[in-house]
Q: What sequence folds into this?
């Protein structure tokens, strides 16, 4: 039985059977059905029998292992149970993804029937980036690699940046490959040229492509140089494999965007802070693409995007979102008005300084990355209710802060209390003498 | 309006599906009837799916009929989005001027003609539907076409309709007999048009065994995959017995 019909049942390895209720859709490797198993509804991915490239048994065993070890984070729509083999095929069940999520592809394309999806805010976009990076960080930390990152694997809620990652069936432990190579335009150069099997390092290249496209929509390697009249397989190998060039390579200008196709790049490349442009330039530099230098680590991406999230605020003039750089006077990219420099929070350890504008949030990641926490907010800039021109920082964390005043006296700040933003005040966020920042006003 | 509301779709390369349909007299009756209904279904209902939510390529179609001479069914201004094709039933009569069709295709396979695009184009996919022997000087026409670089790089698949099709000719067109599929019944034809079009224009994750292939190997692989898929679905075996080669007349 190659395909299933509504009403069919398939036996689950762990006992019982799943009953097919409906078909969700069909892709290259198999068909996804809605099934009922033990009184609950799941999605069943049922493979075409030619989907395994001859490695059917390894594939089955690998899925079983992954099911046993469990999902690295909640962002993964992880296999939850496997079926028994049945006429040369099998499948696995996973949760059905909830409403509100859109396939990443739909952020890139639009049609009359289904308009292009756009993020509701930059905050949501940046949160999506952080969620994706963190998911792969946790996956890699567990010794896995994903091996087939592409636009069909991500489902994102454009309102809040929540992410679900599906198709986790090629995820394998270090050193293992089940025959998959990846999708054209998403594969790392060394995979395109068949020099290596996909691994953590090639995941990192593909991750950079995902992040670039989240922010800029267009493809990072597609410009004048890589657009011949007729794209052949041999040329694809050159432009994505042996001789890729980033469209914004700082020194090599051969692959600049083709005028008329560069709308998104013109819109967005310039508005992000320099450190965001820099990290993309590094990720797509010749040395990093061709692996003469290491790929950008998830930790480095997280640092950049957490900084960006802390710098994303509301323009006091037009009320739209803008990015507040700490070290200079800002210009709103929406209304073009100049925004006077704000007070700053200068961290002791990593020379990070953040602009302290109204409603600005400090994340636990900003003060201490070693906590591995991507959710928690520890501080929020608030206006004084009597005098809105007076700003302070509310301790919204669970810790009591230690504030050191310029005269070296110390005061504790309980959760819920506010410290005014006065020059020279030093905040010890965890009261551990590590996560320390000075206010400059 | 925020900058986020001003985004545009990502630029993508054009991929043109060419359909060349034999409408000579020998196709009349159930053969042309089957082609008409199969093409109509594929183009109006199945194929729009592959093009609407596709970030890999901008898939377009151009359809030509050839009999005594040849003409484009889609607007001569160039290939159109699949959803924009209005299918009008083709009538079968006249000769089989395959040579003329080759020359006309050669003219359009140019970046100044049907493959014009600022975002570039992928090598096209060309599907030839025919049932019989060409009546004109087809070899000259094909020779000219074979010099065309777009043609050289294209995926070329021929669908031989009925057993009396001149498969040798079709194999010369595709470059390999492995890229010629013979169809005996209506249902299979429908499935084939859909599957071949979908397969040939599909951009999915590659297995490791997928090294760089010649266009002929690729065409062959598409045909193989489609035949396997059809077998899996058992479409072949439960056809309604309406074989083209049994003379049951028009119905
Ligand atoms: N967990 C899920 N819940 C609901 N629908 C799903 C789920 N996983 C996949 N689908 C749907 O099933 C269809 C086929 O999925 P899949 O086989 O993964 O496609 P592809 O091979 O193209 O990635 C898609 O339309 C997808 O939206
Ligand atoms: Zn503004």
A:
């Amino acid at each position: 039985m190659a395909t299933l019909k509504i009403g069919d049942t398939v036996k689950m390895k762990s006992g019982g059977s799943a009953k097919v209720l409906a078909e969700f859709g069909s892709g290259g490797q198999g068909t996804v059905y809605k099934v009922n198993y033990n009184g609950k509804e799941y999605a069943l991915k049922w493979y075409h029998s030619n989907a395994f490239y001859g490695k059917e048994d390894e594939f089955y065993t690998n899925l079983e292992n992954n099911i046993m070890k469990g999902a690295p984070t909640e962002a993964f729509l992880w296999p939850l149970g496997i079926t028994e083999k049945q006429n040369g095929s099998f499948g696995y069940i996973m949760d059905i993804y909830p409403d509100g999520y859109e396939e990443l592809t739909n952020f890139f394309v639009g049609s009359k029937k289904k308009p292009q999806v756009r993020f509701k805010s930059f905050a949501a976009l940046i949160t999506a980036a952080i969620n994706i990076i963190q998911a792969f960080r946790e996956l890699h930390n567990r010794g896995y690699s994903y091996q087939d990152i592409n636009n069909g694997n991500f489902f994102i809620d454009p309102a809040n940046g929540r992410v679900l990652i599906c198709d986790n069936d090629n995820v394998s432990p270090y050193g293992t490959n089940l025959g998959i190579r990846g999708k054209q335009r998403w594969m790392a150069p060394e995979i395109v040229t068949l020099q290596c099997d996909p691994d953590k390092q090639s995941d990192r290249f593909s991750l950079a492509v995902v992040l670039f496209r989240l922010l800029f929509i267009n493809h990072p390697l597609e410009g004048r140089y890589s657009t011949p009249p007729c794209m052949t397989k041999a040329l694809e190998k050159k432009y994505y494999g042996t001789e890729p060039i980033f469209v914004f390579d700082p020194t090599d200008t051969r692959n600049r965007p083709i005028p008329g196709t560069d709308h998104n790049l013109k819109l967005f490349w310039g508005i992000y802070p320099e450190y965001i442009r820099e990290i993309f330039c590094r990720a797509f530099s010749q040395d990093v693409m061709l692996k003469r230098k290491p790929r950008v680590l998830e930790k480095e991406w997280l640092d950049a995007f957490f900084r960006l999230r802390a710098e994303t605020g509301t323009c006091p003039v037009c009320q739209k979102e803008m990015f507040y750089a700490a070290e200079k006077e800002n210009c709103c990219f929406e209304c073009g008005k100049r925004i006077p420099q704000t007070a700053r929070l200068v961290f002791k350890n990593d020379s990070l300084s953040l602009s302290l504008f109204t409603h600005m949030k400090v994340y636990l990641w900003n003060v201490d990355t070693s906590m591995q926490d991507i959710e928690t907010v520890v501080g929020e800039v608030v206006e004084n209710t009597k005098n809105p021109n007076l700003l302070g920082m509310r301790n919204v964390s669970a810790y009591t802060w230690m504030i050191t005043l310029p005269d070296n006296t110390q005061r504790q700040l309980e959760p819920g209390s506010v410290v005014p933003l006065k020059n020279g005040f030093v905040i010890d966020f965890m009261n551990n003498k590590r996560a320390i920042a000075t206010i400059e006003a | 309006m925020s900058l986020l509301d001003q985004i545009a779709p990502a630029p993508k390369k054009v991929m043109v599906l060419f359909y060349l349909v034999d409408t000579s007299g020998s196709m009349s009756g159930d053969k042309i009837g089957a082609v008409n209904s199969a093409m109509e279904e594929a183009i109006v209902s199945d194929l729009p799916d592959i093009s609407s939510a596709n970030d890999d390529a901008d898939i377009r179609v151009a359809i030509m009929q050839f009999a005594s001479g040849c003409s484009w069914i889609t607007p001569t201004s160039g290939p159109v989005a699949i959803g924009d094709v209005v299918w009008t039933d083709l009538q079968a009569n006249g000769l089989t001027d395959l040579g003329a069709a080759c020359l006309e295709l050669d003219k359009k396979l140019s970046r100044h003609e049907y493959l014009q695009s600022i975002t570039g184009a992928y090598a096209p996919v060309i599907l030839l539907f025919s049932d019989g022997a060409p009546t004109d000087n087809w070899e000259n026409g094909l020779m000219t076409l074979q010099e065309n670089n777009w043609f050289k790089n294209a995926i070329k698949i021929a669908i031989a309709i009925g057993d009396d099709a001149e498969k040798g000719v079709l194999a010369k067109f595709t470059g390999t007999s492995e890229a010629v599929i013979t169809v005996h019944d209506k249902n299979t034809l429908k499935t084939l048009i859909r599957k071949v079009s979908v397969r040939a224009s599909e951009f999915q994750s590659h297995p490791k065994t997928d090294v760089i292939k010649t266009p002929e190997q690729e065409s062959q692989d598409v045909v193989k995959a489609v035949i396997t898929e059809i077998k899996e679905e058992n479409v072949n075996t439960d056809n309604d017995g309406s074989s083209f080669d049994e003379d049951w007349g028009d119905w």
About this structure: The first helix of chain B runs from residue 30 to 52. Residues 30 and 107 of chain B are 32 Å apart (CA to CA). Strands of chain B lie at 14-22, 58-67, 69-72, 80-81, 121-122, 125-130, 155-161, 180-183, 206-207.
